[in-house]
Design a protein that fits this description.
Aspartate Aminotransferase, domain 2, 39% helix, globular, Aspartate Aminotransferase, domain 1, 458 residues, four-stranded antiparallel sheet
């Protein structure tokens, strides 16, 4: 691991925080430093039983290490342990949350909105669909079959009918299939995904909005993974660029700062374009909302207790790395995207691999299968290469996708490919979301090709 600047910086910041409360009489808390040291040593050893999520050779799931300033600010806030449900429990951190959320909304072009942080993207999406249900009770919610499974589960919790819309071979929600559902006249909300979990596909939001003009429905954008790519339109292909350009027309947006936003778990965010939806949250509390006439975040949130430290960490990170096109934060996103494009280019030039047909990565997720005469063998080879990479400290992920999504296999007749084209195949998947992945790509490629040589020969 790299030398960590956080302990020294945190020690100085802690001194400054303590100085803010010097008017209080001193008191002591009974702790046993020796016992704590033993427990923390044991904790460190237990935590070693993990994948090295912080390292560039971890290129598997959507796990990005928090920025050092986020870790330091979170730990600093834990000296107070604020609760952002009400200003009684988190006066400063509530203001910091409001400012941080304004920064995220501004990234999407919104200045008038309602929004707050949540403990996860799941809760952010739940609130968006709950409001949708309040506005259109009994009407269906639809989303791509490649949308996150949480939408179907949330809809069941909310007692709202949910339907999957088929995806095309690029992983995008099919507009033809969507319009077929819309003609039934009972769809209240369409969930549009900007950055699917499996492949990072970007649904054509601009085309969905055109259908909205004809059929009338709410549009909820699940940008939990891909929302920050709004900052680098010049690095995206034209279809994705059009989708991101239209995001300001959505009715609600969910985004996860604990993914690309460099935050610790859990830190989600939900935004509503119409501030008037706050009426659905309205309630009173005889024991909570008494210290301030200003807005308490619990008055616009379904959650009650929420970690104020998450807001402090996000605020500090956005102070250091503002959400501006061309800034340091945006350049980090662009480096991950560049790494994904380069990995995809190398895979397409190697006959051992099959990539998605005519579809370079839209964000920073790369998916490929092993070239084999049938999907069963390809799936087995993927499992074996996955393990061989892990033995070389390269950590990838596995995903099942329709075999028909992949370009024809080199060395096999089209008729044979068609005969084996039905069903799902297990593929390798890499999420290159760390800025360091660009500089480490040669080493990633060396380990991948060495693992393939061990498993497949040659």
């Amino acid at each position: 691991m790299l030398q960590d600047p956080v302990p020294g910086l945190l020690s100085r910041a802690t001194e400054l925080l303590e100085a803010e409360f010097t008017s209080l009489p001193p008191f002591e808390t009974a702790v046993d430093p020796g016992a704590m040291a033993q427990v923390l040593e044991a904790t460190a050893h237990r935590l070693g039983d993990n994948y090295p999520y912080f390292h560039p050779l971890y290129a598997g799931q959507m796990l990005k290490p928090p920025h050092p300033v986020a870790r330091a600010a979170y730990a600093l806030a834990m000296n107070l342990n604020p609760n952002n449900h009400a200003r009684d429990g988190g006066r400063a951190s509530s203001e910091m949350e409001i400012e941080a959320v304004q920064g995220i909304a501004g990234m999407f072009g919104w200045t008038e909105f309602l929004g707050h942080l949540a403990s996860s993207g799941t809760l952010a999406n739940l609130e968006a669909l709950w409001v949708a249900g309040q506005l259109a009770p009994g009407r269906r919610i639809v989303g791509s079959e490649q949308a996150h499974y949480t939408h179907k589960r949330i809809s069941a919790v909310l007692k709202l009918e949910y339907a999957n819309i088929p995806a095309d071979s690029r992983g995008h929600m099919s507009m033809e299939a969507l319009e077929t559902e819309l003609r039934r006249g009972d769809v209240g909300t369409v969930v549009v995904t900007l950055g699917t979990t499996a492949t990072g596909a970007v649904d054509p939001l601009d085309e969905v909005l055109a259908l909205k003009q004809k059929y009338g429905f709410r549009v909820h954008v699940d940008a939990a993974y891909g929302g920050y790519f709004r900052l680098i339109p010049e690095a995206l292909d034209e279809p994705a660029r059009r989708a991101y350009a239209a995001i300001d027309q959505a009715d609600s947006i969910a985004i996860d700062p604990h993914k690309h936003g460099l935050q610790p778990y859990g830190c989600g965010c939900v935004l509503f374009r119409d501030p008037a939806v706050g009426r659905f949250y309205k309630h009173d509390s005889p024991y909570t909302y008494f210290t301030s006439r200003q807005l308490h975040l619990g008055e616009i949130s379904l959650e009650c207790s929420r970690a104020g430290a998450a807001a402090v960490a996000l605020w500090a990170t956005q102070q250091l790395l503002p959400l501006t096109p061309g800034g340091e934060f945006a350049r980090g996103l662009a480096r991950g995207r560049a790494a994904a494009l380069e990995l995809d280019r190398r895979l397409r030039q190697d006959d051992r691999f099959q990539t998605l047909a005519d579809t370079p990565p839209e964000l920073d997720i790369v998916v490929w299968k092993l070239n084999a005469e049938n999907k069963e063998l390809a799936s087995e080879l993927a499992q074996r290469v996955f393990a061989a990479c892990a033995a070389r400290d390269l950590h990838l992920a596995l995903v099942e996708l329709p075999l028909t999504w992949f370009r024809p296999a080199a060395g096999f007749e089209p008729e044979l490919c068609a005969a084996n084209g039905a069903g799902l195949v297990t593929c390798l998947r890499s999420v290159l979301m760390k800025p360091e992945h660009e500089a480490w790509l040669d080493r990633i490629w060396e380990r991948l090709t060495a693992a393939c040589a061990e498993v497949m020969g040659g």
